[in-house]
Structure formats: C-alpha cells, structure tokens
Amino acid sequence: MAGTDEEAVAAADDALYVLTAALLTPAKFPSVLGDDYPEACAALGLPPLADGYGLVLGQDGEGARWTVAVDDVSLVAVAIASWDCGMEHDLSPEERTVVAALPGWPLAVAVAAPNVPAPHDPGPEVAEGPVLAPPDSDAWGPAQRRLGADEIALQWAFWRDQVGDSAFPVRDGSVQASDSAGEAAGDGPADGSPAGEEPAGESTAAEQPSEGTPSDDGASADGPNGQQTGHSGIRRVLAEARAYVSSPPPLGRVRSSFAPGDARTLRADGPGWSLVARTDDMAFVLLDDEPGEVLPVGRGPELPGLLEGLDRIAVRPL
C-alpha cells in the first residue's frame, strides 16, 4: 500500500496525536478486518508477522487521520491495558518500531485531538493510495456480522439471559439446540439494554418455539416422513467448525479467551459465519445470509465435544 512509503511514514510520525490503539496479533485483531489473522493483515497490506503488530490511530498536525503499525506489540498492549483500567498512559512509539503509516482509520473513532482541525482523510498528494475507513454501519455484511459476534462475546451474560434453557427442548435430560433467532448484537443500544424490542404482545424470534425436536446442531429428526428439518445454516456452521478440529484453519479463525470459572470463551469464524460460545454453556451463530439475526445453539450431546476440540486448536492470548 502507499502507506508504507517513507514519505507517508514520516508525515504521520511527525506530531502524531494518538487517540486510541488496537492489537493486530493472531490471538486478538480487529474483527472488521477479516475472519482470521492473515486476512486482517492483508486488509492493511501488512505481512502476517508471527508476533503481530500494534496499531496506533491518531491525527497529524493538520488533523488528518493516520493508522501507524508498529512492531513493538508489548508497548501498545501495556497502553491499552492501562487505558482499560482508567489510567493515563503516554503511547509514543519510537520511530524505529514504525513498520507502516496507513492513511485513514480502519475503525470508528469517536474522539478527536484537541487544537487541531477536525479529523479528515489525508490528501491524495500524501496518501497516494486507498484510504482506510470503517465499514458502513447501515449495511449488513461480513464486518457487521463479526462485530455482532464481538458484542455477544463482550456481553455474554446479557445475551445468555435472552435465551433461557426453556427455549431449548429437553430430551434425555440434556438441553438441545434451537434454530430460533434473536436480534443481532449490532442492532442493540450502546447502553446494553435489550436490542430491537418488540411491540407489546409480540414475541421475539428467540421466544418462538421451533418446529420438531432439534438435535444439538439445530436440525430436527422429527420432520414429515422422517425428513430432517431445522436451520440449515446452523448445520452448515457446525459441520465446518467440526472440520476445523481435524484440519486446522488459517491462524486466528479460532480464538480462545478468558471466561469466569474454568470456562473459556470461544470465537470461531468462517466463510459467511461467526460462532461465539462458552465451553461450559451454549453457542450463538451469526450468518451473512441472515442480516441482524442471532441464532442460539444449545448444549445437546455433541456441542460440548465440539467446543472442547475447538479450544484445543484455538489461539490464546499470551
């Protein structure tokens, strides 16, 4: 990309007012950029280094937006951790750590540097190429699907409460899967209140009973003439996720992070789908083909083994 040009690097490095930062590593990367780590790196024109990058988003003295990629991941990680704890921390990467300066921001940033012009894209005479921009929030697509999965992972308790165990038929004492759908995480209010509330007297899709008795993959064996029914999208996602266990996917497509107790939060992505799960609980699926819908999948007899297998191959934060 043009952002790797030395002139662009110098332009962004001179008086860069840092606004925020993000990690771009196999275990943690901005999901808007791709389904896996190599894809996320490719979106920025960067080679997928084993240790990853730190992404520093800021404005230059003219107010132009820049994203600076540095190879000092620890420096950026410490800054992010400090900010998350409400502590002040000066993030000033040394010039020798700068790998590339990319025009624009790939993420939405709600703040601006004081005493400089309002955020704007660098002029073509400096950018000399495509300018990074966050995805359109009004359109549903892979980026929005992944952002929705991010939101579910961050607010698991809220989303889990929307789908009680009563939503899943019980067979032989085990909770099964449901192919009923809830509202997408990306459609909900930022304050964490219930998303897309239905008018009084109407139930959300997550509360509607599904037809037949679903198996753990959302497919029912109780359809007419013994025909298998249920949600074909859920069946496809879980089949592809099972394939990951025997044939590991690109780095970062399956990630494991901390969860309360001895559980782990799992995140898996694939062509047109995202899955979020707790190893001791259920899972949620989002699909490109079903805009704004969250599909819950109960434990059943097979999901625990699948989640255990995915956790074994998942990338974990250091």
TrEMBL record:
Residues 177-197 have a biased composition (Low complexity). It comes from the Bacteria. This is Integral membrane protein. Residues 116-143, 169-231 are annotated as: Disordered. It comes from Streptomyces chlorus.
